[in-house]
Structure formats: C-alpha cells, structure tokens
Specification:
- The chain is an alpha/beta fold.
- 35% of the residues lie in helices and 18% in strands.
- It is built from 20 helices and 27 strands.
- The strands form seven sheets. An eight-stranded parallel beta sheet has the order 24-21-18-15-14-27-26-25. Strands 5-13-12-7-8 form a five-stranded mixed beta sheet.
- A hairpin with a 2-residue loop joins strand 12 and strand 13 (154-165).
- Helix 7 packs across helix 9 (363-389) and helix 18 (629-641) packs parallel to helix 20 (695-715).
Length: 752
C-alpha cells in the first residue's frame, strides 16, 4: 500500500533501521501513525533520501551493508560485569586476530565465539562474519580493539574504540543516608555585590549558608555558555555549548589578579559595575545584556593586566588538558564577536583555510575567551570546596540541558553530530496541550557512534568536574527524542531512538570517575521500562508532588511514592507553590492563549486539585482548619519528607514565598521567561545576604528538617542516618527571628 507516492512498508522499514518511530502512543493513550511527510523530513535530516520507493530501497541496502564494509564495529560499549559480543567482518575464508588494548597499554587476545551467520556478497566480494567477546571484569575506561586480517597473502588492520562502563553507579559514598537540598535559579539569586545577575560568588555564599543549615546539596540551573556578545538568550536551557560555562557568572572582583592591579586599573573595574549592581536591588526583569556588557568590560581590563608566571603556567596547563575543544570554542567566540551570530559562509566550516587564517589573526581574542573558561573553572572549584567545607556531602549540583541553540558553537565545532533542519521538543501532554518545540538541533544517533560518543563524554566530563550531583534534564533524550521537522507543528513530530545502552553507559563512566550522583528528569511521557532501567543503573528519577496522582486523579500517599527518586513539590516550569495554590498557572496560560480547554473548566479542575491536596494533607495531620499559605506550603514539604525518597529538593522560591513562575512552557516573548528575580510574596527582592534571616525560609527549613528527623526516629535510629547533621545542635537556635505569620491564599492571580 502506498501513501503520498511511497510504499508505507518500505519507508517504515527504512525508518525503523534508523530508529525513527513510525507510530507511537500519546499521553492520553491514543495510538498515532506518523505521516510520510514527517518520516521523509526526519530521514532527510540524517542525510537519507526517502523520496521514492527506488531511493528507499537503495538506502535500505546501504544501511544494511554498512557494518559489513568495515572490519571492526565503529564503537563498542560494554558493561564491566558481563561478556559483550561484537562482530568482525572480513573476506570469506580470511583469518583474523583480534586483541583488546587497555588504556594503560596492556593487551590480550579477544575470545572468539561461534557465529553461523551466512556470508554476503558486498561490492562483488564474499564477506563473512566472525564474533568475539569483551570479557567480564574489564577495567572501566576507554580502550581499543585491534584486528589483523590475512587473506590471499595480504594483511589489513583496523582499530576501533571500546568503552567499558559500570553496570551500576555506586553512590553509597556520596549518599550514605537521606539528603535534602535547595534548588535555585542562580541568575535570579543576587546579592548587593552581584552585577545584575547572580554569580558564582553568590553560589558559594549559598552553598556555605545552606550547608550550615544542614543541606547536602545546592542544585542550580544549567550554567552552560550563552552567546559571547549581546543579545544574550535568557534561557539557560538554550546554550551555545553544553561543554563550557557562561562567563556571565564570573565575579570579577574574586579574580586573583585584581588584588595586584594598580589603582586606576581597579577603578575601571569598579566603575564598570556601578550601574548594573544597582539592578540587583530592583524587582525588574533581569537584563542580561546590560549585565554582560558591563562585566565583559571589567574582565577585559583584568585580562589585560596580565598574570604571574605561576598563574600563566596554570592557565597553560588548563588549556592543554581541555585541548582542541576549548581552542575551537574560544575561536568561535572570537569569530562571533567579530562577525556577529551569522558567520560568513566561508567561516562556517571549522576545518576551512579561512578559519585557520582567522585563528592566527584572532589569537589574542582566542586567548581571552579561553582565559574566561579558566577563571570559571577556578571559581566553580572554589564554590564546591566552600559547600563541602560547610558540611554538604554532595555540594554544588549542576543541571544538564537537553540541547543547544541552532546557531551554536557545538553545531559549528562538530556539525556531523547534529541533524539538520530539525528541532526537538515534546508531544502534547496534560500541561502543554499544544506540544513544545524547544528548537534545539538533536544529535544524530548514527554519527554519535562514529564519533565514539566523544561529544557526550567531553560534555559530561566538564560539567561534572566540580559537581557532586548532575541533574539530566529530560533524561529520555538518552533513549529517544521528539524530533520536529522545520516548518511543522510540535504535534507533527515523531520519536527517534538512541542507543541508550551506550549513552547511559558513557554518562555513568564519567560520573563514576568524577564521583557524581546522577538524577534524571523523567517526567512527562516516559515508557515504564525506562524508569526500571535507570533505577537498575543507579540513576535516580524525579518525583514532583503536583504530578504524583493515582488513576482517579488523587494525590498519592507518601508511601506510594517511588523510593529511587529526588522528590520536590514543584518544578521551574510551574509557578511556585504559593502561586500554584492560587491557580495562577491557569490564569497565566489562559492569558497567553495556551489552553485547549475552556478556562472555566480548567479553573474547576484546579479547584478540585487543591481540594484533594488539602484532604490528603489533613489525612496526614499536617494542617488544621483554615491554614495559612505558609502553613500549607510547609505541610506539602512535610508530606514529601514522609516518602521513602532518598533525596528531597526544596525550591528557593518556595522557601521565600515567591509566586511567579520562572518559565512558562510554550512561550518565547509572551512571558519574561528566565528573567524573574528572586522576590517574596510581597514582590520585595530577596538578596543572598538576607537569606539566613529570612523568616519564611527559616520556618520552612525548620519544618522540613523536623519532619525528616521524625520520620527517621519512627522508622528506627538507622533510617536515613546522616552522621554529624541530624545529631548536631539545630542551626535555628542561633537565629533570633521568629517564623513569619502566613498570609491567606489569594484566589485571584496577579498580572505579570
């Protein structure tokens, strides 16, 4: 049967071979077939022609024969606790010797196993298949497979990458008992010394404070690099690279060289920050462009002041370790600074002679942009050290975005890794009824293998270097992503599968080396087996109070929550608890035209949702009659503390009484996404220096820690034991401010 000029069974076979879904079940349980137009566009983005039956047949043959044209597989990913077979393709009748070469230069012969696969004619010659195994108990790391083939008196050799990964991430050393921590949007969390945007000095300050309060981690939004020059994209989830960091988060005054600058030089730094520092005291949308322009001027002065020989050697060593990736990223920043975001055609190929010439001519600017990454690395290391010294067992925790900007450094540096004319997003669900298009170009599953998964491992290694935990946004992206062809609606996409065994394995290997806990954001449409797989591999899931409901729509009880998750009340894509309780998420989406159902119906559903939440809280004895807003928010946190989740996350916005959402999915310019400064329920700015004595924060942390201790005591002295924290004197006894009397919940939302 044909549809739109091509046979459905043929295009389905071709799509299947590339991991492209031809049908799927949606959030509501409905079966959907993917259109031929979508399948053709998705395949075209991977360089595959599916326009006619003839081209499809040809592409199928090419795809099926590809492994037979090479001796060794492009990349083999194995687990260390089991044998892993792999196939070798050689001329029929040839002899082959395969050896494993470990990353410490050791070697041994691979064991051959039986393989009765029939030989095939490839390009007119008969080729056979032999199978070998990677043995159980291999050391973790990046190794090599080498093959030597003898046939008709001729010798051929081949080499490929072997990656041995842990079967399960061991987190016992980092998480020997129950942990709780804060989550903050760093850009929004400012101090009087911030340059209009929260920075790493503020991060260190919060790490020290919350560690003193008994917290084990401080999770922040992705700190990936944004555009090097204005305008700067506000979304931390739309970076120009996920491997390197955003220099906007540097605190200029904390750079060592500032202490040795002359008076006039230091004045230039001070003057650059005067105006933007005032913005930190105002409850206005965050102005990244002004903040970065001022900070960049100051950083230029500090960079030009030079470094001692010792410091220069440290910088040189950092560049050597980071290698070609850092040099290319710094060059991209210099080119973007010179030519703007749309580079001339001759500069869009990183290997071109025009780019090589620019690299020589822009060497000083390349040095500057590389220097910024070194400074970031130093300040992030210091922030992690401060948090750990304050008692945090995990410390600073980073967030990994799902993708990058379409005109990003990553796409420029490794173009073969990305599909063309495709954006990733999400199909419709109960909270985003029109679907989402995040606009990021996805990695190509086929070329990732050819690249030995280097883009993934290089990125993970850098992000986790000074972290105790990594949150992977939309971890389903390691399994499948919703691809949306350019010019199509989010509803017209389809899923594309990745080699999740390899993707997860590489991530775990880097996490193991860094000593980092991994938490996957597994919300939305997730196949049940995925959560089981992640749990088996030692990756924690994500559980959100508002989303955890039974089949009848009631909030599940604490004992029904999963036990292998990080649990929280809400997410950054919802209004904080105070705003959500007031139904502001409905009014906001209605005002932005994002509702599919009538607003009255949505308000009725929100009212019923709140009523059911209150019933559950009363069943647990957590609220009385006519509770205040503060009491309800604290009760919700006590509720999640009664779950068996090993990690509890408290959003800083909930702790201070903020009501506004940081992000409204489905919008771009309609709402000030990622530009909301931290404020309390009265819209007064909350500064980092004032957090320690913020009455609402003190009250919430006290309520949470008391509940954690009560749960532990009721379950036995060894339940979620946390040495040195639960048994020490309460930090609240040192503060003189009493808990804030809670305000009543307002049913009417505020305009933003």
């Amino acid at each position: 049967m044909t549809h739109g000029g091509v046979s459905r069974h043929l295009i389905k076979a071709l799509a299947d071979s590339y991991g492209v879904a031809t049908d799927f079940w949606d959030f509501d349980g409905n079966y959907n077939e993917v259109s031929e137009a979508t399948l053709m566009s998705v395949l075209r983005s991977m360089g595959v022609d599916a326009s006619t039956d003839e081209t499809i047949t040809q592409e199928l043959n090419t795809r099926n024969e590809r492994p037979w044209r090479r001796i060794l597989p492009a990349c083999t990913v194995a687990r260390n606790d089991r044998e892993t077979p792999f196939h070798v393709h050689i001329p029929h009748g040839a002899s082959v010797i395969v050896e494993v070469v470990t990353d410490d230069a050791g070697s041994f012969g691979a064991r051959q196993i039986q393989d009765f696969t029939e030989p095939r004619f490839i390009d007119g010659s008969l080729r056979g298949q032999a199978s070998f195994t990677v043995p159980e108990g291999m050391p973790l790391g990046y190794h090599k497979l080498r093959a030597r083939v003898e046939h008709d008196g001729q010798v051929a050799e081949d080499e490929s990458t072997l990656i041995v990964t842990p079967t399960r991430l061991d987190v016992d050393t980092q998480l020997s008992g129950r942990a709780w921590g804060m989550m903050a949007q760093l850009y929004s969390t400012r101090s009087r010394q911030s340059w209009g945007v929260g920075d790493i000095a503020d991060l260190a300050e919060m790490g020290s404070l919350f560690g003193d309060m008994g917290a084990d981690f401080l999770l922040v939004n992705p700190l990936h690099a944004a555009e090097p020059v204005e305008p700067v994209s506000p979304s931390p989830y739309l970076p120009v690279t996920r491997r390197f960091f955003n220099p906007m988060y540097i605190r200029p005054e904390d750079i060592r060289e500032v202490a040795y600058m002359s008076g006039p030089q230091r004045s230039l730094v001070t003057w650059a920050g005067e105006n933007v520092k005032k913005m930190s005291l105002e409850n206005n949308p965050i102005d990244r462009d002004s903040a970065w322009q001022a900070k960049r001027e100051a950083l230029e002065v500090i960079y030009a002041a030079g470094r001692s020989q010792l410091r220069q050697r440290d910088f040189d060593r950092f560049r050597k370790v980071e290698g070609e990736g850092l040099e290319d990223f710094a060059l991209w920043c210099a080119l973007t600074e010179k030519y703007g975001p749309h580079l001339p055609q001759q500069l869009r190929d990183v290997t071109s002679p025009y780019v090589a010439r620019e690299r020589r001519e822009l060497q000083d600017r390349v040095d500057f942009w590389a220097w910024l990454q070194w400074i970031l690395d130093e300040q992030l290391r210091k922030a992690q050290e401060e948090s750990r010294m304050a008692g945090m067992r995990i410390g600073i925790s980073h967030d990994l975005a799902v993708g990058v900007h379409p005109q990003s450094a990553d796409v420029w540096m490794i173009p073969d890794a990305f599909a063309k004319n495709i954006g990733v997003g999400a199909p419709p669900d109960m909270y985003n009824q029109q679907g989402q298009n995040w606009s990021q170009p996805p990695w190509r599953p086929d070329t990732l293998e050819e690249l030995d998964y280097a883009p993934l491992r290089d990125m993970a290694r850098t992000v986790m270097r000074h972290a105790g935990l990594l949150r992977v946004d939309h971890i389903m992206g390691l399994f499948r992503l919703w691809w949306i062809p350019e010019g199509m609606a989010a509803t017209e996409g389809t899923y594309v599968r990745f080699n999740h065994e390899a993707m997860v394995g590489v991530l775990l290997l880097e996490a193991h080396r860094a000593g980092v806990i991994v938490v996957g954001e597994d919300l939305g449409t997730v196949e049940p087996w995925v959560r089981e797989y992640l749990s088996e591999r030692g990756i924690f899931g994500t559980s959100v109070f508002w989303f955890e409901k039974d089949h009848a729509g009631w909030p599940i009880t604490p004992e029904q929550f999963r036990s292998d998750v990080m649990v929280s009340v809400d997410t950054h894509d919802l209004p904080p608890a105070a705003g959500y309780l007031a139904g502001e998420h409905v009014d906001l989406r209605e005002s932005l035209g994002l509702l599919v159902k009538p607003v009255e119906e949505m308000h009725e559903e929100a009212r019923e949702e709140r009523e059911r939440v209150m019933i559950r809280l009363r069943e647990q004895g957590l609220v009385g009659d006519n509770p205040s807003e503060r009491e309800i928010v604290e009760a919700m946190h006590r509720y999640i503390a009664r779950t068996s989740a090993p990690m509890i996350q408290v959003s800083l916005v909930n702790a201070v009484g903020e009501r506004r959402a940081q992000n409204q999915p489905g919008t771009d310019q309609e709402y000030p996404n990622w530009r909301i400064p931290l404020a309390d329920g009265t819209e007064q700015v909350v500064l980092v220096e004032d957090l320690a004595k913020n009455p609402r924060l003190v009250s919430l942390v006290t309520a949470l820690t008391e509940e954690i201790e009560d749960v532990r005591d009721k379950a036995g002295s060894n339940f979620w034991h946390k040495p040195g924290v639960f048994g020490r004197q309460s930090w609240t006894s040192r503060l003189s401010c009493p808990p804030l009397a809670g305000r009543r919940i307002f049913a009417r939302s505020r305009a933003h």
